[in-house]
Amino acid sequence: RKVALFLSVFAHHQKNRIVKHAFSRSRQSVSKHFHLVLDAVLRLHLILVVTPKEIDESYTDVNWKWFRGCLGALDGTYVQVLVPLSEKPRYRSRKGNVSVNVLGICDQNMNYIFVLTR
């Protein structure tokens, strides 16, 4: 429950008063639980956050020969989502679909190192 509360604030940028109602907690409890999980994540950052490594000049994979010195690749796409009726205008794309724009960045081993949704 604490991690879900943390993710609501951190990943979805929800305000304290919104999370308070969603989780039936006081504002003080929301703040306390958020900071408890944040402290745990910060203590684990060396394990959770891996910095990308540059592709070595001696890398022999033919798919990467054009990308010497690059860290990886990025691409974006629209992903259809299910949202409440009241939120649909916010997520409507220019083609009329209800979706979010997702940008993904991966390293040379095809591991995601960054994902952004808009």
UniProtKB/TrEMBL annotation:
It holds the Pfam family DUF8040. It comes from the Eukaryota. Residues 2-42 form the DUF8040 domain. InterPro entries: DUF8040 (IPR058353), HARBI1-like (IPR045249). This is DUF8040 domain-containing protein.
